[in-house]
Design brief:
The complex is a heterotrimer of chains A (272), B (324) and C (314).
Chain A lengths: L2 H9 L1 H4 L3 E12 L2 E12 L3 E5 L6 H8 L7 E6 L2 E2 L5 H6 L2 E3 L12 H7 L9 H6 L4 H18 L15 H13 L5 E5 L7 H18 L2 E5 L3 H7 L2 E6 L2 E6 L1 H6 L1 H11 L1
Parallel strand pairs in A: 3-8, 3-9, 6-7, 7-8
Antiparallel strand pairs in A: 1-2, 1-4, 4-5, 9-10
Chain B lengths: L1 H6 L1 H22 L7 H19 L10 H27 L5 H19 L23 H19 L2 H11 L1 H6 L4 H27 L9 H14 L5 H22 L5 H9 L1 H15 L7 H12 L7 H6 L2
Helix pairs in contact in B: 2-6, 2-9, 2-10, 2-11, 3-4, 3-5, 3-9, 4-5, 4-9, 7-9, 10-11, 10-13, 11-12
Chain C lengths: L1 H31 L6 H15 L21 H30 L3 H23 L17 E3 L8 E3 H23 L1 H11 L1 H6 L4 H27 L6 H16 L4 H16 L9 H15 L14
Antiparallel strand pairs in C: 1-2
Helix pairs in contact in C: 1-5, 1-6, 1-8, 1-9, 1-10, 2-3, 2-4, 2-8, 2-9, 3-4, 3-8, 5-6, 5-8, 9-10, 9-11, 10-11
The chains are: A alpha/beta (272), B mainly alpha (324), C mainly alpha (314).
């Protein structure tokens, strides 16, 4: 992204802040007798960092899975920039510009770091079987551009020096960063991060907050974040939604949510 | 040397066909899909050749079958197999898991029952006297070897291309690939269809080569043999099925010559001659238990490469981490 | 009308054998999530075990030509013992071909491949040992009963072979016993618990290895019994006898929904009836009916006739 594009985005930031990017209405998902997500409604505004917190088993990851098409809701709808995306398959959701990482990291383990990031550029490239096999246009140019961009993204997460290492061989924190790089390769508008700090050491956790903020600025992203690490969530998020037993029990800016009695109750209840 | 080639010409050509057939099963495996349908498409391709060459093209008996006709048969077989693969593949490949394996078992059986009962396929007897495009058996290599080399080059290039990477992503983690914008069903059907086309093409040439074609070409034993070629040879690099096809096809011949050496107990000699499928079955079990990725793996190739590079053995970053 | 009733009764008879055979497949699938391709070979072996146990001699081909056991059991006892032996063999196969893979947490496709390997070894070993001849049991399970029973009137006879009726009766008896076992015995309840939710079941302290052994035994017994029942109806048609049946069994469990225990019974009956009602002009295509149905189910109801939609854990 060029400097003046970034400049122009910052210039109309106040306007954009009001634009709704994602709108969940009455999202519900049952598994047998269990209601994992129960009538959850909220909106996410363009450019904000939206935190999703709650005790274990509150339905946060299920909500992410519903939003990315990995599972279908029992009822409820999801709109993205006004379009209904409830019934879309995961790859269609991804192609529209919603990328995600996974709580239990799902990299392509036997492939190298750079290959992992190249794969995620699939929707932005065109070359088919014949072009790829015979080396006809646009395959060679695309292959070069794909690799170049993958290397840039690896550089961004500080892993360019280990581009050819297999994904399974990375330490936990590196795997999390690689997953973010892979998600960014989709050129998303919305990035869903499922517990990005899990398994990171304290110093990694500290730099993560700044990293997420810089990525949001640089790629003009809206970020949704599931996280347990409270300082990270409080410092980073513009608004926070709290889930408990599948229900949305609070939604607002961090300092408000922090003092919400229902939230305190949910966490204390969880601890006890 | 040339005597050796002529004495074993039939085995040598079969070895090459088996290697290509192995690649036809390797293609869907690139996308993580186990298909048992290669022999079915192989049989179908053979029937196309058998029917066209004996009933449609008019070739005077005794004359050589023109090569352009053979190419036409290959194209017809490719189109037919490709279309059928799409029809079979879409319902089976929408679903995750073992449905493709089951659907391909069903497909092969339906094909067998149908060809057993149709007039045009000659029923249980099959089709005889399929005309010969070549003067000697060994000359089939003129078509078998280019086919193998082209197929190998195709797969090698495919693996490094955008589509090939999408296949690999699905094999590694279908759900994650889906979430990264790769349409799983489309790519799985594509991989399956390319394998079907390749198997069909091998079938057309094979029908001429064998001179006769019947329902035994696509039966359960044929499925097992191709499966053994890929899974024993190696399912993670295309050299696995190629070497698997070459070696396992030669194996019965080798065992037979061992049995003929003499001095072996009668039962053992008999076993070596008749026990080909028992040995394949045992190898399949042993391989899945001890070598789940087959004999030829990318790691194995890496070791071979280092052995020949003469440089002192360099430890890569991967190995340094793998062995702390 | 007469023809309809005849087809119906014959369909139920063969369908009930499909049902007990397919139960063997589906029990293993419900516990381990794998298809045991060796199940068709177990079917064959059960039939051969029964043949051997009656004291009959082998034919002229193969290593064991003309040999026989020094004793002979009556057919009914031989069928039961033969099926039990098939069950034990199934446990041994589990030990050799499945357990090592399970311990390693290997891809389920690999279990499918190793069981295919076992199947091909078993079938060809039989051929090597006793040749590819057709074997017919000494004695009849119908005993002194007439060979056919008329279900119609004197004017419009509807003859059904007695052996079909006996087979139907035996299969129903097995189904009733199995239902009782699954619903009322401790191990049966454990089996059902694991098949519904493996994680919860292991939390409840169910000994999975013992349960898996038991499941394979049961599966092998059902497979062997199906083989010996079909064998007593139409003779043993050589070592490949069970392969075709085994492949049809796969169609049955897809019809019923993979791992769905009642579904396997319904699927078996549906296939038996569908085959029985194939018009005689097309009887040559009867063996393709199972696989045609498989595709229809894959297209319309991949979860099976009775099935619920499976929840995929993300």
């Amino acid at each position: 992204m060029t400097a003046d594009v970034a400049e122009s985005i910052r210039a109309d930031a106040p306007d954009r802040a009001r634009a709704v990017v994602l709108e969940a209405t009455g999202m519900t998902r049952r598994f047998g007798g269990l209601v994992a997500v129960n009538d959850v409604s909220f909106t996410v505004n363009d450019g904000e960092v939206f935190g999703l917190i709650g005790p274990n088993g509150a339905g946060k990851t299920t909500l992410f899975n519903l939003m990315t098409g990995l599972i279908q809701p029992t009822s409820g709808r999801l709109h993205y920039r006004g379009a209904d995306i409830t019934a879309l398959r995961p790859h269609q959701v991804a192609a529209r510009g919603i990328a995600r990482t996974f709580q239990n990291i799902r990299l392509f383990g036997n492939l190298s770091a750079v290959e992992n990031v190249m794969i995620a550029q699939h929707v932005h490239t065109r070359s088919g079987v014949l072009a790829g096999v015979l080396g006809l246009p646009p395959a060679p140019a695309e292959a070069r551009a794909t690799r170049k961009k993958a290397m840039e993204l690896l550089d961004l997460v500080g892993m360019a020096d280990r581009a050819e290492t297999k994904a399974v061989n990375f330490a936990y924190g590196d795997q999390r960063r690689l997953e973010i790089a892979r998600a960014l390769a989709l050129e998303p508008h919305v990035l869903l991060l499922d517990e990005p700090a899990a398994g990171m050491n304290p110093s990694e956790k500290q730099t993560l907050s700044g990293f997420i903020r810089s990525v949001r600025e640089r790629f003009d992203l809206t970020v949704l974040l599931i996280e347990h690490h409270v300082p990270l969530v409080m410092g980073l998020c513009d608004r926070i939604a709290v889930l408990n037993f599948g229900k949305l029990i609070a939604l607002g800016p961090p300092h408000v949510v922090q003092k919400d009695p229902a939230v305190i109750e949910a966490y204390l209840g969880d601890a006890g | 040397m040339s005597d050796f080639f002529h004495a074993h010409s039939s085995v040598i050509v079969s070895m090459v066909f088996a290697a290509v057939l192995g690649l036809s099963l390797y293609l869907p495996l690139m996308a993580g899909q186990l298909s048992l349908a290669s022999p079915g498409f192989y049989a179908l391709g053979g029937y196309v050749a058998a029917v066209f060459s004996t009933k449609i093209f008019n070739v005077a008996s005794g004359a050589h079958f023109p090569i352009p006709y053979l190419l036409i048969e290959m194209i017809v077989a490719a189109v037919l197999c490709g279309a059928l693969a799409i029809i079979v593949g879409i319902p089976a490949l929408r679903l995750r898991g073992i449905y493709l394996a089951l659907a391909t078992v069903a497909f092969v059986e339906i094909l067998r029952v149908v060809s057993l009962n149709l007039k045009i396929t000659g029923g249980a007897v099959g089709i005889f006297k399929i005309p010969q495009p070549f003067r000697s058996t060994l000359q089939y290599l003129w078509i078998a070897l280019p086919l193998l080399i082209l197929a190998m080059a195709f797969v090698y290039r495919l693996e490094k291309s955008r589509i090939g990477r999408a296949f690999t992503a699905i094999r590694e983690d279908e759900l994650a690939a889906d979430a990264m914008g790769i349409a799983p069903t489309y790519h799985k059907v594509l991989a399956f269809t390319m394998g079907a086309i390749l198997a069909g093409i091998v079938g057309t040439v094979s029908a001429h080569f064998l001179n006769t074609w019947n329902t035994r070409q696509g039966d359960f034993n044929a499925s097992i043999t191709v499966l053994a070629i890929v899974l024993i040879g190696g399912s993670r690099t295309f050299l696995g099925p190629v070497l698997g096809g070459l070696v396992l096809t030669a194996l019965p011949e080798i065992l037979r010559s061992v049995a003929d050496i003499g001095g072996l107990p009668h039962w053992l000699a008999q076993f070596l001659k008749d026990g080909r499928l028992i040995i394949f079955g045992l190898l399949l079990v042993l391989c899945t238990v001890f070598f789940p990725q087959g004999i030829i793996t990318p790691e194995f190739l890496g070791r071979v490469r280092r052995l020949f590079s003469r440089r002192p053995r360099a430890t890569t970053a991967d190995e340094a981490r793998a062995a702390p | 009308m007469a023809h309809f009733i005849q087809s119906l009764l014959n369909g139920l008879s063969i369908g009930s054998v499909y049902a007990i055979f397919a139960l063997g497949y589906t029990l293993v699938f419900s516990i381990l999530g794998i298809i045991n391709f060796a199940h068709g070979a177990i079917f064959t072996i059960g039939a051969y075990f029964t043949y051997v146990l009656t004291g009959a001699a082998f034919g002229f081909n193969g290593v064991l030509a003309n040999r026989s056991l020094p004793f002979g059991l009556t057919l009914v006892i031989a069928m039961i013992v033969g099926s039990l032996l098939a069950g034990f063999l199934s446990v041994i196969i589990e030990r050799l071909a499945f357990r090592p893979l399970r311990r390693r947490g290997a891809d389920r496709l690999l279990s499918l491949v190793s069981s295919l390997g076992v199947a091909i070894v078993a079938v060809n070993l039989i051929q090597y040992l006793v040749g590819a001849e057709i074997y017919t049991y000494k004695g009849k399970i119908t005993g002194n009963l007439p060979s056919a029973v008329n279900f119609g009137s004197e004017n419009t006879p509807i003859p059904i072979r007695t052996v079909q009726i006996v087979i139907f009766g035996v299969s129903c008896l097995i189904l009733v016993l199995l239902t009782f076992m699954i619903n009322y015995t401790k191990i049966g309840k454990a089996l059902r618990a694991v098949s519904e939710d493996a994680t919860t079941a292991s939390l409840l302290g169910i000994n999975t290895d013992r349960l898996i052994m038991f499941t394979f035994f049961l599966s092998g017994f059902l497979g062997g019994m199906a083989g010996t029942l079909v064998g007593s109806s139409v003779s043993i048609a050589g070592p490949y006898f069970g392969i075709a049946f085994g492949l049809k069994g796969l169609a049955v469990i897809v019809l019923g929904g993979l791992g769905d225990i009642p579904g396997a019974v319904v699927g078996g009956l549906v296939l038996g009836l569908a085959e029985a009602f194939v018009p005689s002009d097309y009887s040559a295509y009867k063996d393709a009916v199972a696989f045609g149905l498989l595709f229809v189910v894959l297209l319309l109801r991949p979860q099976g006739i009775l099935g619920r939609v499976q929840v995929q854990k993300v």
